[in-house]
Amino acid sequence: MSSTPKYRRVLLKVSGEALMGSQPYGIDISTVDRIAADVKDTTDAGIQVCMVIGGGNIFRGLSGAAKGIDRATADYMGMLATVMNALAMQAALERTGVPSRVQSAIPMSTVCEPYIRRRAIRHMEKGRVVIFAAGTGNPFFTTDTAAALRAAEMNCDALLKGTQVDGVYSADPKKYADATRYDALSYHDVLSRELKVMDASAVSLSRENKIPIIVFSIHDRGALAAVLRGEGRATIIEESA
Fold first, then answer.
1. Residue 228's domain spans which residues?
2. In the predicted model, what is the mean pLDDT of residues 12-33?
3. Cα separations (Å) of 97 from 33, 118, 124, 129?
4. Could you tell me if 105 and 141 are in contact, meaning their C-beta atoms sit under 8 angstroms apart?
5. Whole-prediction pTM
6. Which CATH number is 177's domain given?
7. Cβ neighbours, 10 Å, residue 226
8. Which residues pair with 214 in a beta bridge?
9. Which residues pair with 236 in a beta bridge?
C-alpha cells in the first residue's frame, strides 16, 4: 500500500462461501491463502484488522432448520462451522507471517480464546489480527449481525464486506444482466429497497453506530488494499449517499 489508508481499524466480513473457491463445499486452501495475503497487505500498512467469517461453506443454520433440525440447534451447528473457518484463516495468516488470534463467542478453550472485548482490542493494538468466531453466541442472529456488533464493540472505522461481486446491485448480476450497480447508498436506501447486502439488523446496527459499510469483491487480489486507500470498485453505504 503506497497511499495513506483512510481507516485506522477495520472489520472484514467474509462469507463462508468465499472460502470454497471453485469447490462445491468446504475450504479451498489456495483461496484462504489469497485472502490472508490481502489481509497481510493491510496490516503491513499499519491498519488494525479484525475479521468475522461465515459458515455457509460447511453448514447453514437456516437450511438445516428447513430440513427438520430445530432452528436454535441448527444455528449452533452453523456457529461451530464458523470456528472451523476461523481456525483455517488463522493458519493461513500465520503462514504469511501475520500473528492472529481466534476468539469464540462459544467458549472452547482447547482450540481458541473466549471472546473478551478488551483483550481483542489489545491484540489489535499489538498488530495481531483477531478473528471472531461463533457469531454472537446466540441463535437467530446471522454472522452479518455479529460483524456489525463486533465492529461497534471494537470501535472500527469501517465494516468491509467481501462478497462474490464488486459492490451492491439492484438484483443479482449473475442472474440479471440489466441489474444496476451502485457506487454509494445510504443505510435508508438499503433498508427501504430491501437490497440483499446484509440483513436489516446488521445495517441498522451499523447506522446507529455510524460505521460505514463497504462492499467489494473478495475474489480480486489486491481489492482490499485498494478499497482501504479509497480506490478500486466498491459500494459505500453510509448515512448520506
1. 9-238
2. 95
3. 12, 24, 15, 11
4. no
5. 0.94
6. 3.40.1160.10
7. 18
8. 160, 236
9. 184, 214
